[in-house]
Write a structure and sequence with these properties.
The chain is mostly beta strands and 188 residues long. It is built from one helix and 13 strands, in the order βββββββββββββα. The chain has one domain. Helices cover 7% and strands 46% of the residues.
Length: 188
């Protein structure tokens, strides 16, 4: 009699993000959060459930659900402008992510001319004084699938490393707004 443990993900609430079209996962068993456009405010609240299924000798099975005791992640959400909150609303198995996403496309960049005439690549929201924007490079792919690893705890020392994916979609309007902002802030 073998016991199988499965982690499920339930979306509790989501808002914002522009509702880009959902992309069909390549593997139906993968866990996905709703897609979001880069640059648009959003949040998603979700929970993990541990399902333990025990096979009984007659070919049938019995399942029980267990509420995780904690959810942790080493993913650097701040790098993408996103806030990660675990134990959301006092529930040990709930997580909330708040955005907007930024920096989701590594090959998207802004190149500037500085007062010393150097031409560095800087983020669009740089605090460095610059004369002007001289180049914007759009990303080569317009969807970036981020992979988060959540440690779903069942007690103080037992956890299940759980992969969760989210598609971030590049948005022309966000890029144009960033460019307009950058141009208006340049030293004249």
């Amino acid at each position: 009699m073998a016991t199988t443990t499965t982690i499920t993900l339930n979306i509790i609430e989501t808002q914002g993000g522009g509702s880009p079209p959902s992309l069909t996962p390549s593997n139906e068993e993968d866990l996905y959060l709703p897609s979001a456009f880069e640059g648009l405010p959003f949040y998603v609240i979700f929970e993990f459930i541990i399902v333990e299924t025990e096979e009984i000798g007659d070919g049938s099975s019995s399942s029980i659900t267990v509420t995780p005791t904690d959810i942790q992640s080493d993913f650097n959400f701040e790098e993408y402008g996103v806030t990660f909150t675990n134990n959301y609303d006092g529930f040990s198995n709930r997580v909330r992510l708040d955005g907007p996403f930024s920096n989701a496309f590594p090959d998207q960049y802004y190149q500037f001319v500085l007062p010393d005439l150097s031409t560095p690549i800087l983020p669009f929201d740089t605090e460095v004084e610059y004369l002007s924007l001289i180049k914007y490079n759009a990303p080569s792919q317009f969807v970036n699938t981020l992979e988060y690893i959540f440690n779903v705890y069942d007690g103080p020392s037992v956890f299940y490393a759980t992969e969760v994916f989210e598609n971030i979609v590049w948005r022309y309007e966000s890029a144009k707004s960033n460019i307009d902002t950058v141009i208006s802030k340049g030293l004249k």
